[in-house]
Amino acid sequence: MRILARLQAMLPKARVQPVVAAEEAHLVRRPVSADMPVRFEGETWAYVVDQAEKKLQRLREKNDDARLNEVQTAVLRGRIRELRDLLALPERLKAERMAALAQRDAPSEDD
Q: Among 5, 51, 55, 96, which has the minimal tally of Cβ within 10 Å of its Cβ?
């Protein structure tokens, strides 16, 4: 949920509009998994990547500040990790899909 909130914060306020009606909102809140179709080729994902990379660069620059204490550094590293995880989502889902296919195609003990 935190990633969604951060993505919404990165998007310009004028362009943020509900994707589904309120009564269908429960359908959107399921976790991303290997069997869920996600389009990483479109304009929306390209925009998310662009904004995430810009934010990542700013956080890395802040993290280089020698005046930060351990807690501040840990917070920045956590935020950096979240963005890196988001940017790695296409590869993670691809690996999950491949693993699911391999498991499905593997001979079972009953064969």
A: 5
pTM over 0.90: no
Find the radius of gyration of the CA atoms of the chain: 18
User: Residue 55 corresponds to which tokens in the numbers above?
Assistant: 């934010």
3-state secondary structure string across the chain: CHHHHHHHHHCCHHHCCCCCCHHHHHHHCCCCCCCCCCCCCCHHHHHHHHHHHHHHHHHHHHHCCCCCCHHHHHHHHHHHHHHHHHHCHHHHHHHHHHHHHHHHHCCCCCC
Residue type, 82: E
Please state the domain extents for the chain: 42-105
Q: Please return the burial class of 83, using the count of CB atoms within 10 Å of its CB with bins 0-12, 13-18 and 19+.
A: buried
Q: Give residue-wise pLDDT tens across range 8-43.
A: 666 655 444 445 455 555 555 555 555 556 788 889
